[in-house]
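User: I'm writing a tutorial on reading structure tokens. Could you give me a worked example: one chain, its sequence, then its tokens, then a sentence or two explaining what the tokens reveal?
Assistant: Sure. Here is the example chain.
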Amino acid sequence: MSPEKTGTGVTAVKGFRAGGIACGIKKSGALDLALILSDMPATAAGTFTRNRFRASCVDHSERLARRGRARAVVVNSGNANAATGKQGERDTAEMAKKTASVLRVPAGEVLVASTGVIGVPLPMTAVHAGIELLAGRLGAAGGRKAARAIMTTDSVPKETSVRRRLGGASVTVGGMAKGSGMIHPDMATMLAFITTDAKVPAPVLGRVLRGVVDDSFNSITVDGETSTNDMVLCMANGAAAVAVLGGRDLDVFAGMLKDVCRDLAEKIVRDGEGASKFIRVVVTGAAGVSAARRVARAVAVSPLVKTAVYGGDPNWGRIAAAAGNAGVAFRPEKVSIRVGGVLIVRRGEGLGPAAERETARALRRKEIEIRVDLGAGKARASYFTCDLTHEYITINASYRT
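And here are its predicted structure tokens:
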């Protein structure tokens, strides 16, 4: 018998198995149910949407994540199970209970996530049958199917992993995510699941994850919309027999987690609904990091900036106006702006037609950097976003139909 293939994403990590199947939630017949299982007890942490109209799975998983333990995550796509009242709450609990039963793990250690259309009850007969079937198909090579099973309007699955020496052993952090539209800071229509074989106490894992999410998933925007179901969940099962408690080991682990989350976040933006260009907004010279983030966020979310990039229009006034509307104090006469590496504004004034023509040429590229120097300090921040195209309207005008 040949050895099982090395996994990808969440199953690149020792001691984790996963899988994905089509259980009948999506009318298209595409994969729509995923499971991730740790073969041993794991600590857990998560971050969750701040949208007040949150789905019951968010409340369920946040409550369990506070306990700091998890063995499995069950995820469905095609149906958000949001705005479904008491029935939705019962269905979330039933998904956890069914998963726990077939996997023979405690029900209080099964996290639940859902994504898809809001306001429609889950087809629980199909979900029950799917969980039972999928539980027997989990494997170390199942990460790719799991990543495909959580997709909605995504055009590609999103996975990544990093492996480094830590504490004398090889430690891996792996992850998968979904997201393409309704992407904005404070979480978005995205789900992300991170696994690691390091041994990390739950309070430490939670603290590191929150900091990393701020610099990754909370630093991207596609369309300025947040959602009802977003979460990032991380499980650490200790299979590598390396304890991460503090000092240099914790710094290295945090760096690995950040690499995974930023890579997944960037993949989400690159796959933005209808996107044709990837935009990196960098703000420098701010009085503080908070100020830099606010300005970067204002520029990144501006539909006028995003449509100008799509159309190749060197309209730097849109960038300046967005920065000025961020609620941050700075002196316009000290501001410089570069687009695609071209200096187009110096000390608050445009540099004229020649600079605009050069900028227009730079805007033909598929990757664009907008750099705003506020001239007010030394702090900096960055956001990832994408252009706003006709295709975005087409996708969202017919999302349900």
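What the tokens reveal: The longest helix spans residues 247-270. The first strand starts at residue 16 and ends at 21.
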